[in-house]
Design goal:
alpha+beta; five-stranded mixed beta sheet; MotB-like_N_dom; OmpA-like domain-containing protein; OmpA-like_sf; cell membrane; transmembrane
Length: 281
């Protein structure tokens, strides 16, 4: 007698399972296709990744998304945070900047918000443009909330670059000051007068003019020279702390008694009105 064939285990799968697996395969293929066709903003991706790593105390620092491609730098982690005593809120303006007129750089204690002269002033002059006035008015509420002193630093390139076709050489007179320096000074004073006229304290603002002597980018290209023509708003948290400590030392008379340690640096002090430290034979 022939033996019966045993049925293999497992049974038939339900019909709906085949349809379901086909649908999931198609869905997976569809999303893979979407991801492969997507355009990912590398700068925003770096901002997100560094923010996540920074929240867990890892990584080197946060990425400045508006730093030019050839000048990419990491921002050191430090004491800066989203307080009112900070220029951090001004970074939001960079996302609306399509022409590269704004730049923001920072480290642990210093923040620099740079504005191109093309948006602030009329060509070759120290007169604020309408666009510059609008921009300053947008910044003003935040600047008024900063407790630390702010430095307004004016920078230019050569006058040939500043004035373009209107540039003329006057061979009959020899200027006593650099015309580029004078233009940078007049420009930064225009901003100083505008800010103080709208509520900012004169004690909270300091003005410096550098002319073409402090280029941040190369002077060998038109783009670099354009970016060097700027006004920097500088917040340095060390300034106020340094002044307060020096004043306490002066009042206590400790300046002539020895060294002064500040952030792992040792200084031999000799302040006005104090005698120098005595040295042994």
């Amino acid at each position: 007698m022939a033996k019966r064939k045993k049925k293999k285990g497992g049974g038939d799968a339900p019909a709906w399972l085949i349809t379901f697996s086909d649908m999931m395969t198609l869905m997976l293929t569809f999303f893979v296709l979407l991801v492969s066709m997507a355009v990912i903003d590398e700068r925003r991706k770096l901002v997100v990744l560094n923010s996540i790593s920074g929240a867990f105390g890892e990584g080197l620092g946060s990425f400045n998304p508006k730093t030019p491609r050839h000048h990419t730098r990491l921002i050191e982690p430090g004491a800066m945070d989203m307080e009112t005593d900070s220029l951090e809120p001004l970074k939001e303006m960079l996302w609306d900047d399509q022409r590269g007129d704004l730049n923001f750089q920072e480290n642990s204690y210093v923040q620099i918000f740079s504005i191109s002269d093309e948006v602030l002033f009329r060509p070759g002059t120290a007169e604020l443009s309408e666009e510059g006035v609008v921009l300053i008015n947008r910044m003003l509420p935040w600047l008024l909330r900063v407790n630390h002193p702010l430095l307004l630093a004016g920078h230019t390139s050569g006058l040939r670059e500043e004035m373009g076709e209107d540039y003329r050489v006057d061979l009959g007179s020899l200027p006593t000051r650099s015309p580029a320096w004078e233009l940078s000074f007049l420009r930064v004073m225009s901003i100083y007068r505008y800010l103080t006229g709208r509520g900012m304290s004169t004690e909270s603002l300091t003005v410096e003019a550098f002319g073409s002597n402090r280029p941040r980018w190369t002077e060998n290209t038109p783009e670099g020279r354009r970016m060097n023509r700027r006004v920097d708003i500088v917040l340095d948290r060390r300034n106020k702390e340094w002044i307060e400590r020096m004043e306490r030392l002066r009042q206590s008379g400790a300046a002539g008694s020895g060294d002064f340690n500040y952030r792992d640096f040792r200084f031999r002090l000799s302040l006005p009105g104090s005698s120098p430290p005595e040295t042994g034979e």
